[in-house]
Amino acid sequence: MTRSLMTALVALALLVPASSDAHSEKEKTVPADGAVLAASPATIAMTFDRPMRITMLRLADAAGREYSVERTDGMAPITEFEATPEALGLGEYEVEWRGLAEDGHPMQGSFSFTLAN
User: Fold this and answer.
1) Which of the listed residues 2, 8, 39, 117 has the most CB atoms within 10 Å of its CB?
2) Could you tell me if residue 88 is left (phi over 0), alpha (psi between -120 and 50 degrees) or otherwise beta?
3) What whole-number distance in Å separates Cα of residue 46 and Cα of residue 93?
């Protein structure tokens, strides 16, 4: 193989997108990460760029007390996940989640928000 052919093949390999190996990425949360809210959120939501099966969702306050959330996705792979939390009081909250990307790769993350006057 000539050096110029090898160089051309390497250049071509770098130009081919790696989307077939890409995992889902979280694009947005509701509430936004770090948001300060005046009222309890009506919805906890996450948007992903590719289908994601959310396998665990945990909503807890700063003391570690967990709060129930009602989800309607039936654990199906979706790009827009929504759950309805119980009414929350003032304080700091964290949402932790785990899921499986479309390619079967396990994913996890968290985001937080605060309820204040």
Assistant:
1) 8
2) beta
3) 16
Q: Residue 23's pLDDT is what?
A: 65
In three-state secondary structure terms, 84 is strand
pLDDT in the model for residue 22: 57
| CB neighbours of residue 115 within 10 Å | 19
Residue 26 has a pLDDT of 85
Q: Where are the alpha helices (DSSP H) in the chain?
A: 3-15
Q: Which H or E run contains 98?
A: strand 91-101
Q: Is the dihedral of CA 65, 115, 109, 98 positive or negative?
A: positive
Distance in angstroms (rounded) separating the CA atoms of residues 47 and 27 = 6
- Dihedral angle of Cα 97, 87, 63, 94, to the nearest 10 degrees: 30
Please provide the distance, in angstroms rounded to a whole number, between the alpha carbons at the two ends of the chain: 70
**pLDDT by 10-residue block (mean), the chain, 117 residues:** 55 45 79 97 96 96 97 93 97 97 93 96
